[in-house]
């Protein structure tokens, strides 16, 4: 990610809708008391450790040893809990014309055979870290890489812990975890020209070359920057455009859990993230749960050299996960294995 989509493009895309930003949305009705839904215990310390493990590999940028080692780690760990793990190697041409290799990690937990509905859910995050701190207040840092503790590792850490606990108490739906690579190597702010579609290379590739032919899911949830110290998620426009029902439901679950100050019932402008391509190219309705600090881009340390582990809050990881878990288990229940 993740800059705002260019204004002209938005005018064309959303000419027919009465968009606008920061207006209150209509809350969704719900018949399930989500506060009472049983879910497996999400261990925030474990999730945090998975974030720390990724950051410890160093900068997870394309064509580096750190990328290779972190990909191996992710595939190995997911293999402990998931029925299948696929590493999808793909070529990506970056904004400056260079070609690199990316690795999407796709891991699946099937529903128990006795309770299988044939339905699947898609949970995703990007695992690469950005090569340039081009939003750093200090210009001298603009060509340095970032640790990507929140921007990248946090979403993956949450999903790893979810895989660990879901595998032991499976719902009546299959879960596909997809960790996209080469999401965050888009055109830097210091480049002379903006290059279209230079972000989200892994999701663009996967959406056009799914790991299973004709793959689809009931819905998808993308996590990005989900460990900040002051979490605020809003109803972002691409998510509303393509997956309003999913978004309204998940926000209603959050409200039922008392997290309406975090999952704020406010409609905000579109952002370019992996969900954009999954919605447009793969046709799977996918929402983005992404940090949106009021008045700034995403969060204080976004695309700066300070996006490091000390700004990852375990409690935020847990709350974010629990809202998703309550939604999944509210619909599909815990099945005996
Ligand atoms: Zn980023």
- Measured as a percent range, the helix fraction is 25-40%
What Rg, in angstroms, do the CA atoms define?
18 Å
Spatial strand order of the main sheet: 2-3-5-4-6-9
Number of domains: 1
Count up the helices: 8
Query: What is the general shape?
Result: globular
CATH superfamily: Zn peptidases
- Average pLDDT, all residues: 92
What's the CATH topology name? Aminopeptidase
Distance between the termini: 38 Å
**Stretches where pLDDT falls below 50 for ≥5 residues?**
11-21
The percent range for strand residues is: 15-25%
Total number of strands = 9
Structure description:
By secondary structure, the chain is of the alpha/beta class. It has one domain: Zn peptidases (Aminopeptidase, 3-Layer(aba) Sandwich), CATH 3.40.630.10. 34% of the residues lie in helices and 17% in strands. The chain is built from eight helices and nine strands. It has helices at residues 7-13, 44-56, 65-81, 149-168, 201-208, 237-256, 274-282, 314-332, and strands spanning 23-24, 84-93, 99-109, 120-126, 174-180, 219-224, 233-236, 263-268, 286-290. Strands 2-3-5-4-6-9 form a six-stranded mixed β-sheet, sandwiched between helices. The chain has a three-stranded mixed β-sheet with strand order 1-8-7. The longest helix has 20 residues, at 149-168. It is globular. Bound molecules: zinc ion.
């Amino acid at each position: 990610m993740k800059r705002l989509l260019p204004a002209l493009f938005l005018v064309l895309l959303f000419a027919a809708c009465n968009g606008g930003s920061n207006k209150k949305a209509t809350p969704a009705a719900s018949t399930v008391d989500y506060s009472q839904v049983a879910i497996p215990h999400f261990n925030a310390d474990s999730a945090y450790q998975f974030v720390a493990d990724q950051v410890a590999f160093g900068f997870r940028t394309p064509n580096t040893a750190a990328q290779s080692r972190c990909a191996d780690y992710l595939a190995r760990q997911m293999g402990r809990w998931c029925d299948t793990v696929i590493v999808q190697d793909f070529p990506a041409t970056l904004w400056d014309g260079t070609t690199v290799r990316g690795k999407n990690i796709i891991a699946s937990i099937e529903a128990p055979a006795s309770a299988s509905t044939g339905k699947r859910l898609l949970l995703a995050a990007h695992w690469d870290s950005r090569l340039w701190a081009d939003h750093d207040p200090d210009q001298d840092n603009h060509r340095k890489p970032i640790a990507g503790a929140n921007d990248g590792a946090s979403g993956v850490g949450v999903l790893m812990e979810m895989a660990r606990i879901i595998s032991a108490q499976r719902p009546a739906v299959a879960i596909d975890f997809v960790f996209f690579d080469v999401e965050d190597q888009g055109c830097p702010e210091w480049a002379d020209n903006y290059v279209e579609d230079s972000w989200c290379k892994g999701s663009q590739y996967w959406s056009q070359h799914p790991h299973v032919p004709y793959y689809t899911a009931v819905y998808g949830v993308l996590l990005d920057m989900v460990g900040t110290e002051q979490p605020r998620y809003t109803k972002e426009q691409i998510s509303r455009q393509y997956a309003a029902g999913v978004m309204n439901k998940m926000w209603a679950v959050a409200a039922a859990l008392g997290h309406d100050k975090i999952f704020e019932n406010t409609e905000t402008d579109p952002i370019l993230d992996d969900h954009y391509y999954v919605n447009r190219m793969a046709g799977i309705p996918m929402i983005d749960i992404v940090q949106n600090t009021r008045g700034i881009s995403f969060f204080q340390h976004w695309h700066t050299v300070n996006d490091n582990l000390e700004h990852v809050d375990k409690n935020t990881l847990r709350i974010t996960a629990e809202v998703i878990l309550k939604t999944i288990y509210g619909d599909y229940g815990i099945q005996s294995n």
